[in-house]
Write a structure and sequence with these properties.
Length: 153
């Protein structure tokens, strides 16, 4: 599974496996259980832990948030991904074509819509990505959230 993820994110993310014997890293990131998936951004000290099931598709979606340029795949059909680019975005644009997939027909989902005039600034997208991870519907916090943006123009 990790080889497949590494191939999917080639030249987008660096991967490494840390064993329990590597005490410096285990202590630094306070790892108590293995396997443990952490995303450590070069610009930040605090790691982002993965808390979902150890399944390829779930891990793929988690890692895709940090890949900067989103990678298609992760279990979606190629035809669907090619024609519906918003399916591969963590924070997609809400528009006439994407509305049913990202919000209206998701059932029992609270649609969190960021309104903007034009494109979303990249630092705002980063905040929306972090909120998406925090309130990820797979974490089972009760309500499901779907984050998106809408060009008010």
């Amino acid at each position: 599974m990790f080889k497949a993820l590494s191939a999917a994110f080639k030249q987008k993310l660096f991967f490494g496996i840390v064993n329990s014997e590597e005490s410096i890293l285990v202590n630094r990131y306070r790892v108590k259980t293995f396997p443990k998936i952490l995303v450590v951004k070069a610009t930040e000290r605090k790691p982002y832990p993965y808390k979902g099931q150890m399944k390829y598709h779930n891990i793929f979606e988690f890692l895709n948030v940090f890949s900067e340029t989103f990678v298609s795949g992760g279990g979606s059909s190629v035809d669907s991904a090619a024609t519906k680019s918003w399916l591969n975005e963590v924070v997609p644009e809400l528009n006439e074509k994407s509305s049913n997939d990202v919000c209206f027909k998701k059932g029992k989902t609270l649609c969190v819509i960021y309104l903007t005039n034009g494109e979303v600034p990249s630092d705002h997208v980063d905040v929306l990505k972090e909120m998406n991870i925090k309130y990820d519907r797979k974490i089972k916090r009760g309500a499901s959230f779907s984050f998106m943006w809408l060009d008010a123009d």
